[in-house]
Design goal:
Length: 616
């Protein structure tokens, strides 16, 4: 009975929609080149040696996401391959679609997860439409999309759910005519359908949606019918014995590692606890795949399980606050975390790339050039707006622009590759080291050509920072470099509105900069459960204080098992759900434990997933 008493409380007063764009990168390319879709040509997007995604024509012919390019070409010789290492077009499309989707909330709660997923908290929209229902004539209801314009909306059948539903025994859903939650979910399902149709007609993208009362449930249930489908998780969510409620039953069969919010290390500890032995995949399948599946139900049903035991298993040095309670909630399908509010400017912007080998000054400087150029371009895209009050400087050939916010700090992070040990192997290292400095004012100057800014930045700031970060006499070999701007100051707009010119602002920036205590929070703030232990090969002497935060970030690779070889991170949201795009798998090349092929490091994760998910 202990377990029952421990069951967490669910707040089902919200309606949350989750959207995941279908074949996202391929869809972006198709939007640029409509003939691909019109002629049903197979298309794949390549990063390094991997197909990161492909369109449905390619999938129909047997291609898969995260497949080696060589295999893909063999399976589908007429495949159109587009290089996807420059993420600009995907990021731009992601922003545009997010801008479109967020209009459908009335409470500004719209959260992006990576590039291709969005959560919308549509509670207010649903509640208002619930109030306006005429219970005598549900079948011809009018859905109000706007609080201001009563004519904006569409007609719908409020007595019937739209799209697919999930109920543990399909076809046997109880009759819940008077259930208020069901009524709200029905309304939500029609909104999800309307949004998906509008997205397709206005922007040409199809998406898959989930409808429920939390981020966790809407994301997981959306996955049930892909692509271009939507699924609503049916009630009852409460009122029965806990294990019989639909969310708990829905979650029960999921592998523990596939529950969003349960990280790689947490699921590892839980597997170990349930199996009472070291999980086997630990030595072979590093990313995502497991040899023994441990389900949510297995964890829930293991003897003595509850918040207390979970805290014992998962707690300890460096673990996040109340980890036992949080994980216990997730096991029962309870996620009371909020969809974060839309932010007009990102919290930080950073660009990174990973390398098989980066160990000489010339190469490093060249990489700095590339990264700094992208960073500057991103700053211009994200932080400038057009402006015409004549106070600020014009761009060289465009309309006048002004900074709506600016970063106070610039940060350089690297991940040194551990040296080869006596046995010829290398420890896998996830430890990043970093340094920050006040952002130099010349970076914000709009009349200097970008090339000159980048050169000066490298000479005066980045290279000196790098030398301090890597004083090692014997040299270094980097597996990753990240360049970012942080500590966003959004006061700039107000300052310019009160007629302070850019020169004053820059001087202020310069002056204050010296006293700033750099508060260097990396992404994601509170996503992972525990920091990774830095690997032994790292030179501890050059660790800086924010290392622990980077380790949080670094713990993400085990989460989704995604090898992203050329990545951009951005922390637009407050989410503790943020799945970084910068999941880089760095270890030495190894033979595949399943088929024995020798796999280059950047392809290892995809290759492993290929085995995990099978060929057919
Ligand atoms: N992506 C990537 N590297 C990975 C995984 C994904 O660059 N290792 C990119 C390509 C995808 C996009 O992220 O288009 C979104 O990832 P999804 O897993 O949602 O895949 P898709 O949207 O492509 O396909 P689906 O239709 O299954 O959602
Ligand atoms: Mg997708
Ligand atoms: Mg996705």
């Amino acid at each position: 009975m202990d377990v029952i008493l421990d069951i967490p409380k669910r707040h089902d007063d919200r309606i949350i929609l989750h959207f995941d764009y279908d074949c996202f990168y391929a869809a972006v390319v198709e939007a640029e080149r409509p003939e691909i879709k019109e002629m049903s040509l197979p298309l794949a997007v390549q990063q390094k040696q991997i197909i990161v995604t492909c369109n449905y024509e390619a999938r129909r012919r047997g291609l898969k996401k995260l497949q080696l390019i060589s295999e893909a070409k063999r399976i589908c010789p007429d495949l159109i391959i587009v290089l996807g290492e420059d993420l600009t077009r995907f990021r731009d499309a992601s922003k545009k679609l997010y801008g479109f989707l967020q209009q459908f909330t009335w409470n500004r709660r719209a959260e992006r997860l990576g590039f291709d997923e969005v959560f919308l908290d549509v509670t207010e929209v649903i509640n208002e439409n619930l109030k306006l229902l005429n219970s005598n004539n549900l079948r011809s209801s009018f859905f109000h999309l706007s609080q201001k314009d009563p004519l904006e909306g569409f007609t719908y059948d409020a007595a019937t759910i739209c799209g697919h539903t999930y109920y543990p025994e399909q076809g046997k859903a109880p009759n819940l005519l008077d259930d208020l939650l069901l009524q709200r979910l029905i309304i939500g399902s029609h909104l999800a359908q309307h949004i998906r149709c509008s997205l397709e007609s206005s922007h040409g993208y199809t998406a898959t949606a989930g409808v429920s009362t939390s981020k966790l449930l809407s994301k997981l249930v959306g996955n049930v019918n892909k692509p271009n489908g939507q699924t609503t998780l049916l009630p009852p969510y409460t009122g029965l014995e806990p294990a019989l409620c639909v969310p708990a039953r829905f979650l029960a069969a999921f592998d523990i590692g596939s529950v969003p919010g349960i990280g790689f290390k947490t699921s590892h500890k839980l597997r170990k606890h349930v199996l009472q032995t070291e999980p086997k995949y630990d030595e072979s399948l590093i990313y995502g795949g497991t040899l023994e599946s441990v389900s949510v139900r297995d964890v829930r049903d293991s003897p003595g399980m509850g918040v207390k035991l979970l805290s014992q298993i998962l707690g300890g040095h460096g673990s996040s606050h109340n980890i036992g309670g949080r994980v216990w909630n997730l096991l029962w399908g309870v996620d009371n975390s909020n969809v974060t509010e839309t932010r007009s400017v990102p919290r930080q912007i950073s660009i990174e790339d990973s390398y098989l080998r980066l160990d000489n000054e010339m190469q490093v400087k060249q990489e700095f050039r590339t990264l700094a150029t992208s960073l500057l371009r991103r700053m211009h895209t994200d932080l400038l707006e057009e402006h015409d009050n004549g106070l600020l400087e014009a761009g060289p050939d465009g309309p006048q622009k002004r900074w709506i916010a600016w970063p106070r700090s610039i940060r350089l992070s690297t991940r040194p590759r551990p040296p080869v040990g006596p046995d010829g192997t290398r420890a896998r290292s996830f430890a990043r080291i970093s340094r920050s400095a006040p952002l130099p004012s010349f970076m914000l100057n709009l009349s200097t050509p970008a090339k000159d800014i980048v050169e000066r930045l490298i000479l005066e700031i980045i290279w000196p920072m790098f030398k301090r970060l890597h004083p090692e006499k014997q040299g270094w070999d980097l597996s990753l470099v990240n360049l970012g701007v942080t500590n966003m100051d959004e006061g700039a707009v107000n300052a310019t509105d009160s007629r302070v010119d850019i020169g004053t602002l820059l001087r202020r920036q310069e002056g204050v900069g010296k006293e700033w205590r750099v508060e260097d929070k990396d992404v994601p703030p509170d996503f992972t459960d525990e920091p990774l232990v830095p690997s032994k090969g790292v030179n501890e002497g050059c660790m800086v204080k924010d290392e622990a935060e980077h380790q949080d970030f670094e713990a993400v690779p085990g989460k989704l098992g995604i090898p992203l070889v050329n990545a951009v991170t951005e922390d637009d949201n407050d989410s503790d759900w943020e799945f970084s795009d910068a999941n880089t798998n760095l270890s030495t090349a190894t033979p595949c434990p399943v088929c024995g092929s020798f796999i280059p490091i950047f392809a290892a994760a995809a290759h492993e997933r290929f085995h995990v998910f099978g060929d057919g």
